[in-house]
Amino acid sequence: MGHGILKSCASLIIAIVWVQASVSLVAAQQPQQTREGVITTFASVVEKVAPSVVTVFTTQTVARAQTGFSFSDDALRQFFGGRAPQRQGKQTLQGLGSGVIVSPDGYILTANHVVSGADEIMIGLGNDLRKFKAKKIGTDPGTDVALLKIDENNLRSINFADSDRARAGDVVLAIGNPFGLRQTVTMGIISAVGRGGMGIVDYENFIQTDAAINMGNSGGALVDVDGRLLGINTAIFTRSGGNQGIGFAIPANLAREVMQSLRDKGRVVRGYIGTSVQSLTPEIADAMKLKGQLNGALVAEVEPNSPAAKARIKTGDLITAVNGKKANDARELRLMIGSMAPGTKAQIEVNREGQTKIFDVQLGEMPANAADEGTETLSEETAEPEKTTVFGGVAVTTITEDIRTAINLPRDVQGAVIADIDAESPAAKAGLREGDVIQEVNKQPVKSAKDLLAISRKMKPNEKILLRVYSQGRSGYVALEAK
């Protein structure tokens, strides 16, 4: 019996030692904390992640007149290290960025602008910068994501986090090669999620962070406190060229979707419904009598024979949800549709003149050039059309063949073209300009200057006016008051 007790005690001691060793091993991989729970170091996280972050070297030969990668004092700029040598004839541009190993067999994610136009791409691994020539598997300018591949195995790849769960206030680390300083780590928090509308890329859903990011960090990793990839660093807001506490990263979930498509097909395949949409403004919502509703994507144009046209979605419809998920603005709708596969059937909820309607739309594939050419023709008007003044300070005329040719107006665009506009008029301040074509007034179609004049004469003083206007290649809505 004594031997049995000793044997049990020995087993218990071994079990305790094993548990303590296991806990110590786990603890060594976690941020260390004081007894009060305050994190005092992220060294273990950095040691885990740093081998997965690489240096991206690029070389590009261009004509001397080409500026290449210029850093003017823009408010928003993508960051790309290196300088262009100044000499006659052709010149070689050398760039520096970062990348993240996403699979042990050599696939690497980076920002598209880091490798855009590069004749040669080299990857440097670790602090000793063992260099490997990289092949460009595919790029997606719409999200600023690029996928590279090197012929190497057994690499330390990073684990992905669920970036949809990222919250403002979460602690994050940015790892990259700012100004060529390899394996640099900075810490901050997530300042905001779902940032967009800045015109950097077509599909914007950025994670914003105040972790210090500078030129050369682009393509590097934004990770959480567990060392998982939350995003690919892509751009900074700056007036000086350096970090000012506002950086942007492509969410890991979006980058992973793009990566998978690039790896499988060499390109990104996106869903498509064939509408041009815009976000609501208070003025447009008021003119449409939406009673203060500002959520939704306003359909400004429906392409002929598109999935939206076949489902009978119309201009002026307000898309409020897709498959039951709210679309708060045009950016969100673009992301939702773009993330779905062609052929998918989607239920699109629409507010049409105060009534909720649901349309079943089978998504098409986003074409390389989404804008279809019009086929409808118009009869030719007089060579010297008369200018008609409407809305106080706006002179319009009927479209002629000469005008259509002069302003490169598609055949299917009808309306009254703005021939002159007072720069101080409400219409000019609302964004209208010469060459714009007024297509509708308060949902009434306009086919000529005569139509527009007739509609404008019926307007009451200070009545809200909703104009549908063709400008710079697309249609959109503008709101103003009659004068």
Can you describe what's shown?
There is one protein chain. The protein has 483 residues and is of the alpha+beta class. Helices cover 19% and strands 35% of the residues. It is built from 10 helices and 31 strands. The chain has a 7-stranded antiparallel beta sheet with strand order 8-7-3-5-6-10-9. Strands 25, 26, 27, 28, 29, 30 and 31 form a 7-stranded antiparallel beta sheet that branches. The longest helix is centred in the N-terminal third of the chain and has 27 residues, at 2-28. The N and C termini lie far apart (105 Å). The model is unreliable at 1-28, 64-88 and 371-386 (pLDDT under 50).
Short description:
The protein contains ten helices and 31 strands.
Question: Secondary-structure blueprint of this entry?
Answer:
Layout: H1 2-28, E1 32-33, E2 39-41, H2 43-49, E3 53-63, E4 76-78, E5 90-101, E6 107-111, H3 112-115, E7 120-125, E8 130-133, E9 135-140, E10 145-149, E11 171-176, E12 184-195, E13 206-209, E14 221-223, E15 229-237, E16 247-251, H4 252-265, E17 271-272, E18 275-279, H5 282-287, E19 297-302, H6 307-310, E20 318-322, E21 325-326, H7 330-338, E22 345-352, E23 355-362, E24 364-365, E25 388-390, E26 394-398, H8 401-406, E27 416-421, H9 426-429, E28 437-441, E29 444-445, H10 449-457, E30 464-471, E31 474-481
Antiparallel strand pairs: 1-2, 3-5, 3-7, 4-15, 5-6, 6-10, 7-8, 9-10, 11-12, 11-14, 12-13, 13-16, 14-15, 15-16, 17-24, 18-19, 19-20, 20-21, 20-22, 22-23, 25-26, 26-27, 27-28, 28-29, 28-30, 30-31
